[in-house]
Design brief:
single chain, Arc Repressor Mutant, subunit A, two-stranded antiparallel sheet, 58% helix
Amino acid sequence: MANEAFSQRVEAARRFNRFYTRQIGVLQERLLRSPFSLTEARVLYELAHRDRASATGLVKELGLDAGYLSRILRGFRKRGLIRGKSRNPMPGKVFYR
């Protein structure tokens, strides 16, 4: 029960951060002088902390435009940051690692 309450608080904090990040418009700024924008860093974070991530799920959770996310993922693949699309047991869904 305590674990569930903690998980709910963490998720609430993440929703809060995502909401205000979008509201104040910092998604295009570079993160701590890295080569990544805040949006790119957030996508990398989400990919690193999931076994499988679908583009559809990332679009919904991060509030991103599907075309923008597609360009980010394509860039990550070109840079060797993520592997290509993983085999998928569910037709019509693509998962990234």
